[in-house]
Amino acid sequence: MEERGNISIHTENIFPIIKKFLYSDHEIFLRELVSNAVDATQKMKRLSSIGEYKGDLGELKVTVKVDKDAKTITISDNGIGMTAEEIKKYINQIAFSGATEFVERYKDASADKDQIIGQFGLGFYSAFMVAERVEIVTKSYQEGAAPARWECDGSTEFTITTAERAERGTDVILHIAQDSEEFLEVARIRTILDKYCKFLPVPVEFEGDTINNPNPIWTKQPSELTDEDYKNFYKELYPFSEAPLFWIHLNVDYPFNLTGILYFPKLKNDFEIQRNKIQLYSRQVFITDEVKDVVPEFLMLLHGVIDSPDIPLNVSRSFLQADSNVKKINTYITKKVADKLNDIFKKDRPTFETNWEDINVFIKYGMLSDDKFYEKAKDFVLVQNTEGKYYTLEEYKEFTQANQTDKNGQLVMLYTTDADKQHAFVEAAQNRSYDVLKLDSIIDSHFIGMLEQKLEKTSLKRVDSETIGKLIEKDEAKDSVLNDTEKEDLKKIYEAAINNQNMQVEVAPMAPDDAPVIITLPEFMRRMKDMSKTGGGGMMFMGNMPDTYNVTINANHSINQRILKAKDDNKERIARQAFDLALLSQNMLSGSALTAFVKRSVDLIGKE
Ligand SMILES: Nc1ncnc2c1ncn2[C@@H]1O[C@H](COP(=O)(O)OP(=O)(O)OP(=O)(O)O)[C@@H](O)[C@H]1O
Questions:
Q1: What is the pLDDT of residues 52-89, one digit of tens each?
Q2: Residue 548 falls inside a structural domain
Q3: 182 and 246 share a domain?
């Protein structure tokens, strides 16, 4: 028997188009053909289980072979096979309609072309991206079925002839085109199989090895699995990563189908590098590791796998974002992650605290970017004080309320971004029994802004943004030892000694044992500048402005009383010395000013 025919399509020769535009993704031909072969074996299994097939199933498997001399790649399976009639129906018509649809869509100028190329499963016809001729030799499982051979050279013409084949199943033989000979390299094929076929549900053999794990743990029930299983699977996915902190097993079948395991990696601060670590599968076939639209942005810091046949992969990204299944998946995953964190927090707070350094960026990022997540996380998000103790927001409020509420009823939470550099201020706050939080990671400036918005009657101030008396303003007015004229004189002396327009001098009564001079950068100024640095809020111009500091002179400090009494030529010298000491305590003294300070200090010591 030989039959020649014409594949009926509406579009003129589509192969040049497929070849040209799928260039970057040529390797997916193997994913498509191997998953077809796997499907054929799965169908066999099903037929057997429902009693449609009564014979011996044998060991179901798929084999990939490369023959460099013959320039062929052969994908073989012992699945259901096809009769000549089925080839005509499934290959000539169905498979082709997919390819035709692709070209139709591609012609649509408004479509997002990169996305179509990246996500369109071209099925069987993707073989022509790398092959100049494709043969199918197949025998159906049905009793007495005649084996058939189909051949096509990439034009719209095909032939079907009878073939020799004893066993049930299908061989797809690709005669590799000259420009695709890279795919005749064993190493290349192994890499591709490893990427796309690692977890296919039937053993896939290549060069004598089974290259896949047909029963990955996400397909099992959590009750069947131990911690070791989860950790080993993580190793299998990311051989070079540190062990994960904990994980979530996802398992839904209504209203959409989704399984998977998400791991919390050790994050630290290098979270940029760790993206694209979640792999998306559809029935165990790897699809992509760009899960941007399927998983909420902040969850992309997690690692692991998601498997869902309900995610439409053959459509453009804009469609994906609007897809209601994708939205539900997003919400579901967010909720699961929040629940898991809450669970650990409730059941094992010490572990939660130990891991806080690794997970805080992730949780804060989530709270900032997703209101629903904020609502759940606000009860378990932690803040840590300079003593290393952890509090929830509620606990911290209770802890500080009595002592740190100002005269307007506003609770003022104090924080430091660098407990070393801001040591003098931290100590001054502690001397008043104020508590100071450590908020020093990159995300904390945004986190602080969010807390102020969300928490009622609460503001956050960096310890060095005001003098201690003004950080948390209380009603108690401090008496000043100096009268107004003396204060005015003192101010003038300091202004002359400092001689810098960006230092706003003010004389105010403080405790005699507070520092004589205190330099602060107002909270508002600093936040504006921080924002301009990270490029937010149209504050770019602020970045170029010099810092304007407040210099507060402690009217009640004995040094300042001495300055007023000192000889004229000594007044400025002592004032400058006191000012330099304040600069020094904040690491702000350098260059010629530092040299002058050292000289002056040596002189002063020498005098006594
Ligand atoms: N190895 C095979 N054994 C048996 N039938 C096959 C085999 N490969 C392909 N087929 C038949 O040809 C049809 C078309 O295959 P093709 O890969 O183009 O599309 P598909 O698998 O239905 O969808 P997809 O675009 O997701 O791959 C299949 O549905 C199947 O019936």
A1: 899 999 999 999 999 999 999 999 999 999 999 999 88
A2: yes
A3: no
Q: Are 390 and 360 in contact (CB under 8 A)?
A: no
ipTM of the prediction: 0.97
Distance 36 CA to ligand 1 centre (A): 5
pTM listed for this prediction: 0.76
pLDDT tens digits for range 469-520: 888 988 777 788 889 999 999 999 999 999 998 899 999 998 888 889 999 9
Q: How far apart are CA 422 and CA 48, in angstroms?
A: 74
Q: How many domains in the chain?
A: 4
Pocket of ligand 1 (CB under 6 A): 32, 36-37, 40, 77, 79-80, 82, 90-91, 94-95, 98, 121, 123-124, 170
Same domain membership, residue 42 and residue 134: yes
Range of the domain at 116: 2-210
What DSSP string runs through 10-32? Answer: SSS--HHHHHHHTGGGTTHHHHH
State the binding site.
Answer: 32, 36, 77, 82, 97-98, 119-124, 170, 317
Within a domain: 425: yes
Pairing, β 517-520 against β 549-554: antiparallel
Residue closest by Cα to atom 9 of ligand 1: 36
| Whether residues 119 and 51 fall in one domain | yes
In a domain, 279, yes or no: yes
Q: For residue 519, which amino acid is it?
A: I
Do 145 and 36 belong to one domain? yes
**Domain identity same for 240 and 197:** no
What confidence tens digit (pLDDT) does each residue in 438-478 have?
998 878 989 999 999 999 999 999 999 988 888 898 877 77
Distance separating alpha carbons of residues 223 and 238, to the nearest angstrom: 24
What's the gap in Å between 606 CA and the centre of ligand 1?
Answer: 94
